[in-house]
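Page header: ASSEMBLY MODEL / two components / 594 residues total.
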Amino acid sequence: MQNLIDGIVRAIQLLLQGDPEVVRITLLSLEVSGIATVISILIGLPLGTFLALVQFRSRQFWISLINTGMALPPVVVGLVVSIFLWRSGPLGSLNLIYTPAAIVIAQVLISFPLAAGLTISSLQQLDPRLRVQLLGLGASKAQMILSLWKEARLALVAALIAAFGSVISEVGASMMVGGNLKGSTRVLTTAIVLETSRGEFASAIALSIILLGLAFLVNFALTTLQQRRK
Amino acid sequence: MPPLLMINDLLVKAGETVLLDLPELTVERNEVLVVVGPNGAGKSTLLQVAAGLKKPARGLVKFSSHPDLSELAYRRRISTVYQSPLLLSGSVESNIASGLKFRGIKEPEIRRRVDFWMDQLHISHLAKRRSNSLSGGEAQRVSLARAFCLETELILMDEPFSALDTPTQQELLRDLREIFTRTNQTCIYVTHDLEEGLAIGDRVAVLFKGQLHQLDSVAQVFSHPNTPEVAAFVGVENIIPGKVEKQLKDLAQVRASGWLFDVVSDLAPGTAVFICLRPEDITLYNISEEVKASSARNRLNCKITQLIQQGPLTRIYLEAGFSLTALVTRPSAREMDLQVGKEVIAVFKSTAIHLIESSNKGRP
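Prediction written out in full:
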């Protein structure tokens, strides 16, 4: 218990001092997870829309695959990405292993199925006759899709929140493909693991408070956006 | 003047099942063409094809003035109203403006049209209301305003009032009829409710199992149905197969189920026909009564098999070697002491019978 209290006191001190290492780790976490979320949405939203709206033979198979991907363990993703990016791996020549880019790749693989899967379910919740009505009002295909996204915006923002939540809190893949290198690939979650393993509970708690605060702020902003003019 | 829309040699299938097979159908300018038929007749399929939302296996649907339009340009010459209003989230006025925005119409023109059509549909006071706070009738008025404000050559309506309660339905039907009269709007109006169709339509197309059975004025379909199916659909409950036996100066004598019926018709002897007789055209007399007062030529001895009370009327099922249905008012039924098993005389005029040639099956 004393550890926890000491940790919280030390954490507050660290935060108030604006420790440069803590600031760097925080900014890198935001940058990596932010980029990964944006890429996930850019892949997941069109892919989910396609799977939700277009009927084709193997559609059910692809939706099942996406749904399975929504529960993909980060360490498995870390392992696969490591194998591919390893110096002797198929993409080894790109020299991406132990770089922030490698973490972004792993996080995209973790979060885009979430973005796609939640897009599918949010569009499928809409009345299917709405598509016919929009076309009947003279909407082009693109205008129809934009209108459907607008109608499903509450659920789509929830997909965004879920995608960001899944990567900002993820540790296994970041550790494996990033290597937790100080000043280069150390993010909040990997730093917390390291500080805890070294018995530096104060630093670990300080970083955890930042992580939680960050997650709250981003989610608060997205929830505000989601609930606006509900 | 050429028709507005022409449908030629249309075949629509779902797998191997034929949903619609229409050799020809035209929609004239300024008319309300009502498409009626029971469930599964192909009415909604026809509307989907006409809206450019369903591709036929064969055939063409085109505007006579613009035969070569792209898919989007074709769809934008049409607006649609469905059974469910399917409003978007947002305000009433933003919903009404949605189709205009899709077309890239400028804001002042959008404002003008939205205001005008909200006024026409008596919903100006709802302009700022959220679409999800409207009643069913209000929402359908918004849906109508949204379609009318596009000011397209053709509006397609698919059972727009069938989900509403009767008073709201009647009110909307009256307003819609008024708008049609005032604007000369061309419309294809699909309904399974014949009375609704009669109230709103100029011409009626009657579909059964994907085939057009009749395309005529409302009055003609009602009084002279083309096929037994149409006859049954427009309320003819007595349809009896028979054959013309004699022709006596426009009075045909038709033999059916052992009886000889006099019918005003010029059909030649030997023609196989269906005798069509509406239940309300049959008068019942007690056996003991003097029937001479009636000028009706057809008289049948029948036995009552069933009586069903229907509001102010009593529906009477009779057996006369074949089944016959008659309608009498409740006071008459009481006065005549009509009961199951009682023998009565069914009387009807030769002009009350409409003959359909047996060869008329599934074609207009």
